[in-house]
Amino acid sequence: MQRVKFVDLVAQNAEIREDVDRGFERIHAETAYVGGAAVKQFEQEFAAFLGVRHVIGVSSGTDALRLALLALGVGTGDEVITSPMTFIGTVEAIVQTGAQPVFVDVEPQTCNLSVAAVRHYLEAGRFRTKRGPKAIMPVHLYGMPVAMAPMRALADQFGLQIVEDACQAHGARVLLDQQWVRAGSIGKAGCFSFYPGKNLGAWGEAGAVATNDDQLAERVSLLRDHGRISHYAHQSYGYNARLDALQAAVLSAKLKRLDRWNRRRRELADRYRELLGTTPLPLWLPSEPEDVESVYHLFVVRSPRRDALRSALLANEIECGIHYPVPLHLQPACRTLGYRVGDFPESERIADTVLSLPMHPHLKENELERIASVTIRALAENHELFAGERDEHKTACLPPTRGE
Ligand SMILES: Cc1ncc(COP(=O)(O)O)c(C=O)c1O
User: Fold this and answer.
1) Whose CA is nearest to atom 10 of ligand 1?
2) Which residue's CA lies nearest to atom 8 of ligand 1?
3) CA–centroid distance, residue 134 to ligand 1 (Å)
4) In the chain, pLDDT over 70 holds for what percent of residues?
5) Mutational test site, ligand 1, from 58, 88, 106, 195, max ligand atoms within 8 Å of CB
6) Residue 281 in this model has a pLDDT that exceeds 90
7) What domains does the chain contain, in order, with CATH numbers?
C-alpha cells in the first residue's frame, strides 16, 4: 500500500528545481550569502504579492513576531492578547519582549481568536498588568483568516496595535472595506514563517515582517541586523535575525507558484467536503465564513472519535496530525501564566477533537478518495459502537455548522 503523505515537499522541489539552481548559481558567484540581492529581490516580490510597502526578511516566524513587537515598543508591563489555540512560537515571541501574554478563547467555527471574547476582556478592565494591553496578536490558524474588520474596529476603539500572526496563512484573503486584501497586510505588522512545510516554505528556517509603516520597517531592519546603520556603526543593540540568501532564492521560486498551489488546496478542500460532507457520522468539516478565503495550510476536521479515526488512518498508511493536542494555556512552559483547565473551554474542546488530514497541492484524487473512504469506514464502525454517545457528543464537541 502506497503511503499517503501529509505534506509532499519532494513534489514541490521537483517543480522549482530549475529556478532554484539558477538562483543558487548567482548567489555562489557573488558569494553574498546573508542579505544581498537575492534577499532584496524576495522582499520586493513578497511585498508586491501582499500589497504592502515593506517586507523585511528575517530568520524565522518567531523572530518576525518578536521583532515586530519590539519595534512597536512592546515590553515589560505591557499585555499582548492572543489565542491559546496556536503554535508555541506565538507566545514565545510575546514573552521574549518582556510582555505578558493574555489568552482569550477562540470561536468554535473557525478556531480563531473570538472578537467577542477579546471585547469582553477589554470591557471588563480586569487586566493582568497595571498598564494593561498594548497589542492584539490574532493568529490566522490553519490558513483561515481571522475576521479582521471587527477585530480592527475593536483594536482602534481601545487604542491597541494589531500584529497579525500570519505564519500559517500565506496568500489567504479577507474582505475588508469591500476589497479583498491579504492576511498579514492589515495590522500594523504581519508576520510570516517560512518553515519548510508552510504553504510558502524555505529549505530551512526563515520568516518575514510585512508592514505599511516606514518607521516600523526601519526599526525591524535595524533589530534584525545588530542595530547596524553601516558596516561598523551600530545605533542600538539588536539581534542576529537575518534571512539568508539561499533561502530567499527558494522562496522566490515558490512564490511564483503560490497562488496556483493555494487554488489547488482550495479545490482539494472542496473535494473533501463533497466526499465527507454528506455522511451522517459525527464529523465536522471546516467551512469558510463569507468574508474570508482560507489557503488551507491544514485541513482540520473534528470528531468526538478523533483518536479512533487517527488510528484507522495510520493503520492504512495515511499520515495525519493533531494541531494542537494541548492548548497553550495548559502547556508546562506556560504554567507561570497561572491558567487552569476550564479557563478556555472552546480551545480545550477543539484540542480534544481535531485531526489534520493530508493537505498539499500535489495530493492526488485517488489519494483523497482513499482518505475519505477510510475515514467513513472508521467512523461508521465507531458509530455503531458508540451510538448512545452520539447525540451528546454532537452538541458537546462539535460546532453546529451542518444545519444540525
Ligand atoms: C501560528 C504560528 N506562529 C508562529 C510560528 C513560528 O514560526 P517559526 O517556526 O518559523 O519560528 C509558527 C510556525 O510554525 C506558527 O504556525
Assistant:
1) 61
2) 61
3) 22
4) 94
5) 195
6) no
7) 9-254 (3.40.640.10), 258-397 (3.90.1150.10)
Cβ-count burial 13-51 (b if 16+ within 10 Å, e if not): eebbeebbeebeeebeeeebeebbebbebbbebbbebbe
| 3-state secondary structure (DSSP) of residue 397 | helix
Spacing, Cα 165 to ligand 1 middle (Å): 8
Q: Report the nearest-CA residue for atom 12 of ligand 1.
A: 167
Query: What is the sign, positive or negative, of the torsion defined by CA atoms of 11, 40, 50, 157?
Result: positive
Amino acid present at 174: V
356 neighbors 323 (Cβ within 8 angstroms): yes
CB-ligand 1 contact for 165 (6 Å cutoff): yes
pLDDT in tens, 52-76: 999 999 999 999 999 999 999 999 9
**Rounded distance between C-alpha atoms, residue 55 and residue 211, angstroms:** 7
Indicate which atom in ligand 1 lies nearest the CA of residue 63.
11
Q: What would the grid cell of residue 333 be?
A: 512552559
Q: Which residues contact 214 (CB under 8 A, 6 or more apart)?
A: 53, 54
Q: What are the DSSP calls for 230-271, one per residue?
A: ETTEESS---B-BPBHHHHHHHHHHHHHHHHHHHHHHHHHHH
Q: Does 164 contact ligand 1 (Cβ within 6 A)? A: no
Q: Which residue has the cell 515598543?
A: 73
pLDDT digits 0-9 by tens, 199-225: 999 999 999 999 999 999 999 999 999
- Contact by Cβ (8 Å): 208, 191: yes
pTM of the model: 0.95
CA 87 from chain center: how many Å?
8
Cell 526599526 belongs to residue: 219
Q: Which of 193, 194, 209, 323 to mutate to test the pocket of ligand 1 (most atoms within 8 A of CB)?
A: 193
Distance 388 CA to ligand 1 centre (A): 40
Backbone angles phi, psi at 151, to 5 degrees: -65, -45
Cα(192) to centroid(ligand 1), Å: 8
